[in-house]
Structure formats: C-alpha cells, structure tokens
Amino acid sequence: ADGFSLEKAKMNSVSEIEYPRKILDYMEGFLVSKTLFAACELGVFDFLQAGPPRSAAEVAGGLKTSVDGMERLLAACVGLQLLHAHTQNGEALYSNTELSNIYLTRTSPKSLYHSIQYNSQTIYLCWHYLTDAVREGRNQNEKAFGVSSCDLFDALYRSDEEMRKFMQLMNSVWNICGRDVVTAFDLSPFKTIYDLGGCSGALAKLCVREYPESMVTIFDLPKVVHTAREHFVSSEERRISFHEGDFFKDPLPEADLYILARILHDWTNTRSLELLTKVYRACKPGGGVLLIEALLNEDRSGPLTTQLYSLNMLVQTEGRERTPSEYIGLMATAGFTDIRVQRTGKIYDAILGSYHKRS
C-alpha cells in the first residue's frame, strides 16, 4: 500500500509538471472574478430572479445587451455554477441557482451585490498597482484614483458616492458574518456599547437584537453618521444612537464596551496602540474592548483569504492583517488583561480584552 501511494504521488507530481493546472487556474483567476462582476453589474441575477427560465435572447433584450455577448456570459455563469441551464426545443433556458438568488440579487437580505460592486469598481482598480505597492511598501490610492494618500479616509471617502459604496460593502459583510462575531462572547454584561467606526450600523443592529438590555452608540465621522441616519439606520431603532467624531482626534465617551470591527487592520502598530490606549483610558472599570478581525495563523501559513486581505491592506491602507498574538500584544501593552480569542470558523474572528483598574 505504501509503495502504491508513493507511486501515485509520483505520477501526480509528474502530471502537474507536465500540465500545471494550478498555475493556469491562478493565472486566469481574474477571469472568474470579472465574469461574476459583469453579471452582477448588468443585472443578470436580478432579471432571472422571478418568473420562468429565460433564453439568452430574452435576457439580452431585457438588459439591453448584445445577444452574442449575453450567450457567452450566461454560459460562463453556468460553468461557474451560478446559473442553471436546460434545453427546450433546442434552445438553452437559464435560471438562477438557489445560491445566486440568496447572495447575488439586490433585494435579498443576504445580498453580496454591494460587496461585489466595491470589489469590481474600487479594489480591482487598486490591485492593478499591487506590484508597485510591494515595491514601495505603501498604498496606491494616488495612482489608482488620483487622490492623496496622506489621510487614509479622505482617500477611501473621496466622494459621497464612494463613501456610500464602502458603507454598503460593510453592511453586506456584516449581514453574512456579523451575528457570529457579536455572539462569539457573551456581551450581555456590557450595557453601554460604543461601536467605533461603526459605519452603516449593521453590527449595532445585530448587537441590540442579540442583547436586548444593551444600548449601542455608533461613533464615526460626521458625514458617515449623516449617511447612516439617512440610509441605513431607522429612526425607530431606539437603542441605537450616534456620536460624531474622529476617534483619533476627539475624546471618547465612557462606556462598558468598545467594539473595533475591522478598524485596527487599517492602521500601523503605532496608530493601533494609540487608539487602544485611548480606549483603555475611556473604559469603565469592569468593561472591555472587542476586536473583530480576520486573523492569520500564528506561523502565517494561512488562511489564504487573510493572507490576500493583508496584501489588500498594503494596496489600500496603512495597515495589515495580524496574528492573534500580535493583537494580544497590542491590547496588553495598552493595558487590557484577560484577553481571549474566539474563532468563528468564518472569515472574521473575535478577541475580547478586559479593563481592570490598575492599583
């Protein structure tokens, strides 16, 4: 059996050398992303959401595209298992898969449409300059968008439209992953919660749903707060309030718990420690801080998604993805104790640190 296994491994190795399928897949991986992006941007999944299966000509007519181009796009989506196809009277008819109905249509509560748009229209453009980012060790907002990289969020929020796109991205991410991170630890003892950089309020809404005795304040820049009030958080959400400010420049109000969700990965260790120290000084005794981040393995061997996210942080921000021990080190230096890590099994994990008054 051992000899057979060795021989089989040898054959596979020879086969890979003769036909490097993995490298070819990686080389052309952007074709998959752009196919998904185009289908979403054109409205293919929305068009096929209701009603009977449609022909390529019907989809093309409804979406005002060429029939030839749409035939090719729909066939590729079938190959990617994003659409079903069956033949009737010699003609292919297309319909959404269950997964596409849930995640790729705009009206679905779990829609990733806005995440896909942001990846297509913003991140993809930044990644055109990945080689430069690696060579220079800094983000590429100036080359990609013609905006200064001096102030990170001036670049990320370079227009009202771009700010809304980013907020919609955050909203769709937390609609998928949010409940796992806000329930990774029992947060019910924390009655006053500040979500620093709370953006669209998606996590705040999940917090008040899971912890009925808690009040959550979204602390963010004035223009973000204004947009969140107008487009994302209903005035009927009585246990969610807002605080306008810059968490680096302005005082932090006292609270039981501060949530930093996908915040520290934007910043250098120095800026991250500055913010954590500020949080520690504002925290009530017995309170704490909850970090929500994509965590690298301690030996940095994975997960692949987080390794790629860290490259994205290089291209877009001043920060990086980190290991649990790196975050624990920053939190401990700021003064937090009893630091615990909880993996969720999904992209984002949770780290909870406690504040105990120093004697």
Describe this protein's structure.
- By secondary structure, the protein is α/β, with parallel strands linked by helices.
- The protein has helices spanning 2-18, 21-27, 29-42, 44-47, 56-63, 67-79, 98-103, 113-127, 130-136, 141-145, 152-156, 160-182, 202-210, 222-232, 269-282, 304-316, 324-334; strands at 54-55, 83-88, 91-96, 192-196, 215-220, 240-244, 255-261, 283-293, 337-342, 349-354.
- It folds into 2 domains: 2-104, Arc Repressor Mutant, subunit A (Orthogonal Bundle), CATH 1.10.10.10; 177-355, Rossmann fold (3-Layer(aba) Sandwich).
- Helices cover 51% and strands 17% of the residues.
- Strand 9 (337-342) and strand 10 (349-354) form a beta hairpin.
- The longest helix has 23 residues, at 160-182.
- The chain is globular.
- Catalyzes the transfer of a methyl group onto N-acetylserotonin, producing melatonin (N-acetyl-5-methoxytryptamine).
- The active site is at residue 265.
- Residues 24-105 form the O-methyltransferase dimerisation domain.
Summarize the structure.
The chain is of the alpha/beta class and 359 residues long.
Task: Write out key terms for the chains shown.
single chain; 359 residues; alpha/beta; Arc Repressor Mutant, subunit A; Rossmann fold; 7-stranded mixed sheet; 3-stranded antiparallel sheet; 17 helices
| Main structural class | alpha/beta
CATH architectural designation of the largest domain: 3-Layer(aba) Sandwich
Portion in helices: 40-55%
Q: Please identify the top-level CATH class of the largest domain.
A: Alpha Beta
Mean pLDDT across all amino acids:
93
Biggest beta-sheet profile? 7 strands, mixed
Strand order of the largest sheet: 6-5-4-7-8-10-9
Reading the helices and strands in chain order gives: HHHHEHHEEHHHHHHEHEHEEHEHHEE
> Mind telling me the C-alpha Rg?
23 Å
CATH superfamily of the largest domain: Vaccinia Virus protein VP39
- Gap from first CA to last CA: 65 Å
What's the count of strands? 10
- Annotation field: number of helices: 17
Which regions contain 5 or more consecutive residues with pLDDT less than 50? none
Q: What fraction of the residues are assigned to beta strands by DSSP? A: 15-25%
Keywords: Melatonin biosynthesis, Methyltransferase, S-adenosyl-L-methionine, Transferase
Pfam families: Dimerisation, Methyltransf_2
EC number: 2.1.1.4
Domain O-methyltransferase dimerisation: 24-105
